[in-house]
Amino acid sequence: MKGPIPGGVGLVGLLLLLASIAVLTVVFDRGRFWWQWWRRRTSRGRQWRERLLAGGAGGEEQLEDWEREMAFGEPVLQAAAVLAPLLGLIGTVLGLMAVLATLGPGLTLPPGAPLAGYGRVLMATALGLIVSLIATAALLANQAARSWQIDGLRRQLRRGPGVEAVQERRP
């Protein structure tokens, strides 16, 4: 029942740890990206309006580049959202098998054995679900922000240089 991670079972616990590190890395990267995206909205908006005023040349390519930047890390989050609960379940099953092996053929606790330690086998499932929850929440938040931004920019591109772009150009 012992492994390198409390409640984990050797390789499964290590894989859960790596999945959680990958998810947290992507979450922090996406947070940094969106923070910088909104901090630079004025200069980026000005460049975008100038491109629209010039006839929108290269606008669709720019949108594709931005969308690729915005979607960075989503495959990692998708994989973690699916695989982490499965890894947790495998860890729990392996932990239960170890517990049953210690109980012996009569499935009885040895005299004086504390029962509290046997609940640790469920830790792998809990960790898998927590990693999956964080990955799913981050994935949905990133997809929503990406869709919101790209849809707005695409509407501006289809509409062409609107009244607001012409008004901002006037001194």
How would you describe this structure in keywords?
single chain, about 170 residues, about 0% strand
Describe the structure.
It contains six helices and no strands. With 171 residues, the chain is mainly α. α1 (11-39) packs antiparallel against α4 (74-103), α1 packs parallel to α5 (123-159) and α4 runs antiparallel to α5 (123-159). Mean pLDDT is 83; it is low at 1-8 and 165-171.
Query: What's the overall average pLDDT, rounded?
Result: 83
The Cα radius of gyration reads: 25 Å
List SSEs in N-to-C order: HHHHHH
How many E strands? 0
Largest sheet: none
- What overall geometry do the principal axes of the alpha carbons give? rod-shaped
Helical segment count: 6
Poorly predicted spans: 1-8, 165-171
Structural class: mainly alpha
Q: Note the gap between the termini.
A: 73 Å
Kindly estimate the percentage of residues that lie in beta strands according to DSSP. Answer: under 5%
Topology:
Elements: H1 11-39, H2 41-53, H3 59-70, H4 74-103, H5 123-159, H6 163-169
What is the compact description of this entry?
The chain has 171 residues and is mostly helical. 75% of the residues lie in helices and 0% in strands. Helix 1 (11-39) runs antiparallel to helix 4 (74-103), helix 1 (11-39) runs parallel beside helix 5 and helix 3 (59-70) packs antiparallel against helix 5.
